[in-house]
Amino acid sequence: MNKDLEDGFGKTKSPDNSGAIRIWINVRRDREIPDFDAVSALRYEQDGLEKQQKYTDTVIAMATEHMGMFVNDGLKLEEKDIYSMAGDDVRAMDGVYPPIVALRAFKKALQDYLLRTEQYERLKRVTEKLVCTCRNVTDYEIKDAVGRGKTTFELVRDFTGAGAGCGSCENRVREIVG
Q1: CA pair distance 41, 108, nearest whole angstrom
Q2: Residue where a domain terminates, one of 85, 105, 125
């Protein structure tokens, strides 16, 4: 792969800063249906992530097998998916799985591809998550409210409606607000 032709790039450090990975991707575009673009090639370099090699190999295989993974599907991958495909039964602590560094770098490369190709709405649509089911408010909308100066739960609630219904999302809204 020629570095000048790569469509997306992502890099991530391990949580303890003991290693890092860099991933470059090429994407095969579908002229008729933009959401059908898929990873056509992938190259990576990593330092100090020997303990995660099994998971790196799993991410790479999932991304490139069968003519490449669709970009939208890659952005929806979660750590639990990688652990499952690698054959490990890892339990989540409080619903959060231990981070897989290669997965995070791969998703950054996919996001970079969407940014480079100016597919901003698609990036938002694929990466946002519903936080408040009562008022149909996503994490993107909450972050946007914070960016507009709504820096407390109460201000975000009043601006977006998130947390104004049943209240079950209040802790998540507060977490996003920071």
Answers
A1: 15
A2: 125
Residues 150 and 89 in one domain: no
Residues 46, 39, 66, 92, CA torsion sign: positive
User: How high does pLDDT run on average in the chain?
Assistant: 88
Q: Quick one: average pLDDT of 143-165?
A: 91
What is the pTM (predicted TM-score) of this model? 0.72
CA distance 18 to 62: 25
Q: CB within 8 A of 166, min separation 6: which ones?
A: 134
C-alpha dihedral sign at 36, 42, 48, 53: positive
Residues 144 and 107 in one domain: no
Residue 174 banded pLDDT, cuts 50, 70, 90: very high
